[in-house]
Amino acid sequence: MTQDEPSIVILTGAGISAESGLGTFRDAGGLWTQVRLEDVATPEGFARDPERVLAFYNARRENCRAAQPNPAHRALARLQRARPGAALIVTQNVDDLHERAGSPPDEVLHMHGRLDRTLCNFCRHAFDDDAPLSTARGCPACGVQALRPDVVWFGEVPYHLERIFAALERCDLFVSIGTSGEVHPAAGFVAHARAAGARTLELNLEPSAGARLFDKAVHGPASRIVPQWVAETLGEG
Ligand code: OAD
């Protein structure tokens, strides 16, 4: 199996990081019940009030640094290390908990970007950086003061789509973990993988919006059900 031909594609969402203390978006008390996504997660919101948007992401960067990977992240890393190149993680999460749990960085695709990277909104230069953002900081490449977190906002195109769809078309199994299935294009991955012949499995606290498209579902906290599934997959009974 080469890295270009994973047999398992694993889509993760905020639910896998919930037990690490990072809030989800749409559950009771979730981020989008506290702030309007139009204000902090759209290019228009950034144009209207950049300082507010940067302060919001500076706080999320701090939360992310303080969080630790949980048994679900660690189990997926164990699976990837046991089967090199056979299990590709596609994450909607902007945290780095998969990598800190030991997942090989080139087997984790951050389709919504990463909190620990910064993007120049003027020249599009992107770089590793999680120092506090402000409108006074200039881009190291072009000097313009237009830095923002390198996260994908609503209305922008997610990253790595070509590689993701190629993997969905080739995989034998598509697993969705800790995502509500409300946000496209990720919400459409299950239908795509299914149409290409993959089996589909949902591991989530509750049935997601696309629940009927999964051949099998296990409901419960990720820290319990993901290590269980990995142990079964590795034939550990
Ligand atoms: P959501 O908040 O929409 O969904 C989180 C899902 O995780 C829900 O279905 C919960 O039931 C489930 N969940 C919560 N705690 C869990 C636990 N301990 N174990 C297992 N499952 C649990 O988050 P996402 O689906 O990731 O995009 O949201 C998708 C995108 O919407 C995000 O990437 C973000 C957001 O707006 C952008 O910002 C572009």
Describe this protein's structure.
The chain is an alpha/beta fold. 32% of the residues lie in helices and 19% in strands. The chain is built from nine helices and nine strands. The chain has helices at 31-34, 37-40, 43-48, 50-66, 71-82, 97-100, 161-170, 189-195, 222-233, and strands at residues 8-12, 87-91, 108-110, 113-120, 126-128, 147-151, 173-177, 199-204, 216-219. It has a six-stranded parallel beta sheet with strand order 3-2-1-7-8-9, sandwiched between helices. Strands 5-4-6 form a three-stranded antiparallel beta sheet. α5 packs parallel to α9 (222-233) and α7 crosses α8. The chain is globular and about 55 Å long. 2'-O-acetyl adenosine-5-diphosphoribose is lined by residues 13-15, 18-19, 24-27, 30, 37, 41, 92, 112, 152, 154, 178-180, 182-183, 204-206, 208, 221-222.
Question: What is the topology?
Answer:
Blueprint: E1 8-12, H1 31-34, H2 37-40, H3 43-48, H4 50-66, H5 71-82, E2 87-91, H6 97-100, E3 108-110, E4 113-120, E5 126-128, E6 147-151, H7 161-170, E7 173-177, H8 189-195, E8 199-204, E9 216-219, H9 222-233
Parallel strand pairs: 1-2, 1-7, 2-3, 7-8, 8-9
Antiparallel strand pairs: 4-5, 4-6
Helix pairs in contact: 5-9, 7-8
The protein binds 2'-O-acetyl adenosine-5-diphosphoribose (OAD).
